[in-house]
Amino acid sequence: MEQNLTFDQLPKAVTMLTKEVSDLKRLLIEKQVQTPTEQPEQLLTVQEAAQFLNLTVPTIYSKVSKGELPVMKRSKRLYFSNIELIDYLKEGRKKSNAEIVQEAEAYLSNNKKRLQ
């Protein structure tokens, strides 16, 4: 849009800006509708958890007995939250070399400020 507007051009410029804002608002609303909502928590059986994690059932029982997997127990049955299992998987994520370098640089820059 032109920056050197005359007074006579002002109504047209305001109309154009209003239309652009309206279009942006419509696009944002469409984007919100298209984004998938979070999946609800589901409780999984031992067999379903094994399939979810791509492990065998005996491995699931072994990890539960070692306290490695988040689990809920009701009477003799075990239940696993799909959300907690996803968090469990994310805990095992290893950082890339770039992330490690970035953290080291941030740490060093913060400590240099303290020492001065």
Automatic annotation (TrEMBL):
<protein>
    <submittedName>
        <fullName>Transcriptional regulator, AlpA family</fullName>
    </submittedName>
</protein>
<dbReference type="GO" id="GO:0003677">
    <property type="term" value="F:DNA binding"/>
</dbReference>
<dbReference type="Pfam" id="PF12728">
    <property type="entry name" value="HTH_17"/>
</dbReference>
<dbReference type="InterPro" id="IPR010093">
    <property type="entry name" value="SinI_DNA-bd"/>
</dbReference>
<feature type="domain" description="Helix-turn-helix">
    <location>
        <begin position="43"/>
        <end position="92"/>
    </location>
</feature>
<dbReference type="InterPro" id="IPR009061">
    <property type="entry name" value="DNA-bd_dom_put_sf"/>
</dbReference>
<dbReference type="InterPro" id="IPR041657">
    <property type="entry name" value="HTH_17"/>
</dbReference>
